[in-house]
């Protein structure tokens, strides 16, 4: 038992990086509880583990007192002085009370403690490793799927992809290799839980960093992303170098760079628009491919505006089921009301009539 235990402690330290001291502290605490439980003892006991020989000793700890009230916890000064003339009132004495058959209990307890420490260490290793991958892109292999999750093998750990993070235009089959975005890593009771996504805007940002060197090195910056996963996305970019066109750089020669990302996302359409400090210009850019005649800001709401577009481009500006306008609003952070030129003119005429009536009165 002693040699096996010492060998197990050495292996834990070398293979798992778990210090002997940590396991021994836990083992001594567990053996103390085991002694009290198995021998119906409520007295103050301590368990000591000999790190050199692997032997285990149980001691009853008693306080030196003038008059003994509880013999399990106290020792008279007279008895203490017979052991050592140096004892005084208030000192503690340890009497060995190791049972003859305690080795069997110790072996079982040691096994449980070591297994628990191994599990905890493995959980910590996994959590520490994958928490570093949070907000990063990682390639995994689809293992299986149920009504709640797609389970993705990331190597030594299984991640889960909830329904809301699954692309509506994709089917996930076992052994498929997919790129996923690590949304969050939780240190749950049953072990680290890793949540991944195919729909997060962060996934799109990381894909562009992989495909466009200028985005990766910071020459071109992604300012904001609006995405309806699997269908369409808008990406606002700007350049930190006046000589570089951020939109053209991101799209790539003949659209090759952006096309690679479109293919990765199963045909999700991409609008790359230029970010500018002028909010009116940025809002106009965000409604690409529609032309914009004017942007009128709401005096009562600084984050609301009316955008005027040519009559023949009204439906293009709004988009199918309002998607273009909706994505532009997400991208810019403005509430956008789109009107055609004729509608805007009618409103101007009505307001002029109202002003004339007010003046006559």
UniProtKB/TrEMBL annotation:
Keywords carried by this UniProt record: Cytoplasm, RNA-binding, Transcription, Transcription antitermination, Transcription regulation, Transcription termination
Name listed for the protein in its UniProt record:
Transcription termination/antitermination protein NusA
Entry GO terms, CC: cytosol
Self-association state and partner proteins as the record states:
Monomer. Binds directly to the core enzyme of the DNA-dependent RNA polymerase and to nascent RNA.
Q: Which Pfam families match?
A: KH_NusA_1st, KH_NusA_2nd, NusA_N, S1
Q: Which domain of life is it from?
A: Bacteria
- Chief localization class? cytoplasm
Query: According to the entry, what is the taxonomic lineage of the organism?
Result: Bacteria, Bacillati, Bacillota, Bacilli, Lactobacillales
Q: Of which family is this protein a member? A: Belongs to the NusA family.
